[in-house]
Amino acid sequence: MTESDHEEQYGVGEPDQFQRLWTPHRMAYIKGESKPTGAGAGDGCPFCEIPKMSDEDGLIVRRGNSAFAVLNLYPYNSGHLMVCPYRHVADYTELDDAETAEVARLTQDAITALRKASGAHGFNVGMNLGTVAGAGIAAHLHQHVVPRWGGDTNFMPVIGQTKVLPQLLRETRQIIADAWPHD
After folding, report:
1. 49/36 Cα distance (integer angstroms)
2. Where's the motif Histidine triad motif (predicted)?
3. Is 142 a catalytic residue?
4. Active site residue: 80, 88, 140, 142, which one?
5. Consecutive H or E run containing 69
6. Are 135 and 129 in contact (CB under 8 A)?
């Protein structure tokens, strides 16, 4: 640290040798900003609002007839996608046959695209059905596709409760969209 660093930090605690990795964008998630106010589709559900946006603004990687793939705004790893039906349903058993098939197909295509785009070594794929199961937005079904690499769990998330993501979400969205299998 330089003397000017100490001056800028004056009054905020004793200077030390630690570097700080500030992630202020995570505070929106922690505070629950933009979370739905209720369980209905008209209660501010982001998975109902995202399809109304452009692909770039909504971070949509692929649109299907009854479902879409979108980057997670608060990813566990770079390339963390979610596959969501357009219809506002909470439980997997509520999907009709066409929705079930398209969620499955988009999930397979997401894995193919992420392997091509990022060289992922493996994946965590799954749904958290209900708040008690860990669903952040329980009212609208979504399946997570999280790319994994050997050694991607390092000291940052374990000790610092921080994920280091090497790429901006818009750049990640474009790379994955470009790698998506063509119909």
Report:
1. 11
2. 140-144
3. yes
4. 142
5. strand 67-71
6. yes
Consecutive H or E run containing 60: strand 60-63
Region for residue 64 given its phi and psi (left: phi exceeds 0; alpha: psi -120 to 50; beta: otherwise): beta
pTM (predicted TM-score):
0.73
Identify whether the C-beta of residue 81 lies closer than 8 Å to the C-beta of residue 144: yes
Whether the Cβ atoms of residue 94 and residue 151 lie closer than 8 Å to each other: no
Query: Tokens 């493996």 — which residue?
Result: 122
Residue ranges and CATH numbers for the domains of the chain are 26-179 (3.30.428.10)
According to DSSP, the residues that pair with 153 across neighbouring strands are none
Q: Taking a C-beta distance cutoff of 8 angstroms, is the pair 74, 175 a contact?
A: no
From first to last of the 183 residues of the chain, give the pLDDT tens digit.
Answer: 454 544 555 555 666 666 565 666 666 556 656 666 666 667 679 999 999 999 999 999 999 999 999 999 888 888 999 999 999 999 999 999 999 999 999 999 999 999 999 999 999 999 999 989 888 889 999 999 999 988 776 545 544 556 666 667 788 888 888 889 886
Q: What angle do CA 135, 39, 107 make, to 5 degrees?
A: 45
Angle, CA 104 vertex, CA 163 and CA 94 arms, to 5°:
100
